[in-house]
Amino acid sequence: MNKSILNYISYFVLLTSCFLLPACDKVDVFEKNVTIPQQSWSSNYKPEITFTIQPEDTISRYNIFIVIRHTDAYRYKNIWLNIHTESPGGAVNNQPLNLQLATDNKGWLGSGMDDIYEHRIQITPPQNPEHLSAGTYRFKLENIMREDPLKNVMNVGIRLQKAQQDL
């Protein structure tokens, strides 16, 4: 074979390896989103999200995010949620949160495409990620806005991501 063809093949194999080998790494993110029926979130509809931390993952620290997807027709700059968290030991924590979605100067703070916007809002302090125990965690997301049902909300969810120092 021609030496230049062998060089091209070598470069191709090297480039392909650079893209494929990182795909074999363990995933450091969990995300689950729940669809809101008819994009109209009633206060009595409380989506529940469950995930399990394996014993080998307890050495890591995690950041927890609320994920909200809505249309441009959503009427407010914020959303009030009550986050019910049940840890593996059975302890339940209720945390009301006022999450900012827009400002007068910038408009929507999340990423958008057409008339759909997605927000990933970190609810753990950036300087103090959560140290999670092994076991199953349950998150229940409750809409506590005055408007009931809350219109133009498409999805809500939880994102769990290993803190940067662990990656």
TrEMBL record:
Name of this protein: Gliding motility-associated lipoprotein GldH
PROSITE patterns named among the record's database cross-references: PROKAR_LIPOPROTEIN
Pfam families, sorted: GldH_lipo
Annotated keywords: Signal
Organism encoding this protein: Niastella koreensis
Signal peptide: 1-22
